[in-house]
Specification:
By secondary structure, the protein is α/β, with parallel strands linked by helices. The chain has 9 helices and 8 strands. The model has no long low-confidence stretch (mean pLDDT 95).
Length: 217
């Protein structure tokens, strides 16, 4: 599992901080994604039907019924992220939760998206009052989580909606406290049960005290 050099560069720019660390995914954790994305697709003549927990294979051109291939999915995502300020709002309870947790923890947002979208997302998050540091990565999240923690052994929690990202974090930081949070819990039906060491939380109201306890806040 290799580091993303651009992510490493972004981490180097952060001010040193030895408080407990909370690392957050963005899409469907801090910002709504899976609810607005179908409306965006509809505006472009496509429909999204979930038959599995992924986008490729579930997006079809509405006029023809043709399923969209991976390259076209990537292009649609690029277009969506360019216009994210028009579509993506804060997930329910996230702003209050982060304000509470951020009083005594360092909060860093780690989003898996092409680096070219970082500036647009930074501007959008700032406009929403979410001024926490933002890192983008195009590789596995685990190495970035480990690098963020540093070598002081401070308590660390990581929240993501994608199980593979949580497993990646566990592989890089064995004692990380892992939380699986999804903006739309109906999609859990498509996932296998979470491993025992990943805490499943329904929403930010449930997550906040559990994260605070994990970080010793």
């Amino acid at each position: 599992m290799s580091d993303d050099p651009e992510t490493a560069r972004q981490i180097e720019e952060l001010a040193a901080d030895d408080r407990p660390l909370l690392v957050l995914d963005v899409d469907d954790v801090v910002l709504e994604f899976i609810r607005p994305f179908p409306h965006f697709l509809q505006s472009r003549g496509f429909g999204l039907t979930f038959a599995s927990f992924r986008l490729t294979g579930n997006i079809a051109e509405q006029a023809s019924g043709r399923l969209v291939e991976q390259a076209e999915v990537t292009a649609l995502l690029d277009e969506f992220f360019d216009a994210q300020a028009d579509w993506q709002s804060i997930t329910d309870g996230a702003a209050d939760a982060l304000a509470t947790l951020g009083e005594r923890a360092e909060i860093v947002m780690l989003t898996a998206m092409p680096h070219k979208h970082r500036a647009v997302r930074r501007t959008h998050l700032d406009a929403l009052g979410l001024t926490y540091p933002l890192l983008t990565t195009e590789m596995a999240k685990g190495p970035a989580v480990a690098k963020l923690r540093g070598n002081k052994g401070r308590p660390i929690a990581f929240v993501d909606d994608q199980p593979n990202n949580l497993v990646s974090a566990r592989n890089s930081v064995a004692d990380a406290h892992l939380f699986h949070l999804m903006a739309d819990n109906s999609l859990r039906a498509f996932l296998p049960p979470m491993p025992d060491d990943i805490a499943v939380v329904e929403d930010w109201r449930e997550a906040t005290p559990k994260i605070a306890a994990a970080l010793g806040l």
